[in-house]
């Protein structure tokens, strides 16, 4: 089974740039690549920062962009999003009892849990007691689960970026759930950091995906400034078979030369300069 993980598309009012790029063109190119090469995917999951300024026309453009896809899309909110405006354009989208855009579904016996980690007028993540209660109920009723959210729920060793991770007050309860249910959480996936980071936390594997726009340059020392640039974007293809997960990073916007190389020993033999 394939799951396409896309994040941080940062759509604007059409015609407006974001970071010197056209985010709509980038997103369209990513979707075209998915449609061409991964039409057999089970889901496309977009983990937040659907828009850059949370504006209704940007959400309308998103709705139009995904309207003709044959692959079902799951949408999550990020710190650049506006929950009210999102629900204005997607009024039938699932929300929990408290109005957060927390939702879940079961695919091939695995509970896919999509989290709303957005706070008010802050770039840091929030997941307070009411959201923890909802997640705990989902995990307690699942035998296998996989989590998707926008914010990194723990520090990842990038001091500037870690200031806008899940807030310190909300981390202990989230971490406790990961640890308690590590026997059934197969992976957690997030965006937000605009760079690939992989590892194991509280006994659970995790992976962050690059953005379709500008990319972060990881700095393990800088404490104040986020660093980034217009490096090539990417999305992930998650290939999931039973309890095995493979993650491939797809540089969908690369326009440079692409070579074809043989795999036989002789294909790599050094030519005799004397001949």
Largest beta sheet: strand ordering: 4-5-6-7-9-8
Count of helical regions: 6
Distance between the termini: 50 Å
Output mean pLDDT: 97
Alpha-beta classification? alpha/beta
Mind summarizing the main beta sheet? 6 strands, mixed
Radius of gyration: 20 Å
Order of helices and strands: EHEHEHEEHEHHEEEEEEE
Description of the structure:
This protein is α/β, with parallel strands linked by helices and 275 residues long. The protein is built from six helices and 13 strands. Strands 4-5-6-7-9-8 form a six-stranded mixed beta sheet, with helices on one face. The protein has a five-stranded mixed beta sheet with strand order 3-2-1-12-13, with no helix packed on it. α2 (56-66) crosses α3. The radius of gyration is 20 Å and the shape is globular.
What does this entry show, briefly?
With 275 residues, the chain is α/β, with parallel strands linked by helices. The protein has helices spanning 23-37, 56-66, 83-89, 129-140, 159-162, 171-180, and strands spanning 2-6, 43-47, 73-76, 103-107, 110-114, 145-149, 185-190, 197-201, 204-208, 215-216, 228-229, 235-241, 244-250.
Please tag this protein with its features:
single chain; 275 residues; 6 helices; 13 strands; alpha/beta; six-stranded mixed sheet
Task: Itemize the secondary structure elements and their pairings.
Elements: E1 2-6, H1 23-37, E2 43-47, H2 56-66, E3 73-76, H3 83-89, E4 103-107, E5 110-114, H4 129-140, E6 145-149, H5 159-162, H6 171-180, E7 185-190, E8 197-201, E9 204-208, E10 215-216, E11 228-229, E12 235-241, E13 244-250
Parallel strand pairs: 1-2, 2-3, 5-6, 6-7, 7-9
Antiparallel strand pairs: 1-12, 4-5, 8-9, 10-11, 12-13
């Amino acid at each position: 089974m394939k799951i396409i993980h896309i994040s941080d598309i940062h759509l604007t009012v059409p015609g407006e740039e974001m970071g010197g790029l056209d985010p709509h063109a980038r997103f369209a190119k990513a979707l075209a690549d998915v449609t061409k090469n991964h039409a057999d995917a089970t889901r496309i999951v977009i983990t937040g920062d659907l828009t850059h300024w949370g504006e209704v026309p940007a959400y309308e453009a998103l709705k139009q962009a995904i309207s003709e896809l044959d692959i079902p899309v799951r949408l999550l909110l990020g710190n650049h999003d506006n929950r009210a405006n999102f629900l204005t354009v997607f009024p039938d989208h699932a929300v929990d009892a408290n109005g957060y855009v927390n939702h879940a579904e079961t695919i091939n016996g695995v509970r896919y849990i999509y989290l709303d980690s957005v706070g008010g007028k802050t770039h840091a993540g929030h997941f307070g007691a009411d959201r923890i209660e909802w997640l705990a109920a989902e995990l307690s009723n699942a035998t296998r689960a996989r989590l998707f959210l926008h914010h990194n729920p723990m520090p990842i060793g990038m001091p500037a970026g870690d200031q806008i991770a899940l807030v310190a007050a909300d981390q202990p309860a989230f971490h406790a759930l990961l640890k308690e249910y590590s026997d059934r959480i197969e992976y957690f996936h997030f965006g937000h950091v605009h760079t690939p980071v992989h590892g194991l936390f509280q006994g659970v594997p995790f992976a962050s995906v690059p953005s379709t726009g500008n990319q972060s340059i990881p700095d393990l020392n800088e404490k104040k400034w986020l660093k980034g640039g217009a490096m090539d974007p990417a999305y992930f293809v998650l290939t999931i078979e039973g309890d095995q997960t493979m993650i491939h990073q797809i540089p969908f916007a690369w326009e440079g030369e692409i070579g074809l190389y043989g795999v036989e020993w002789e294909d790599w033999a050094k030519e005799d300069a004397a001949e």
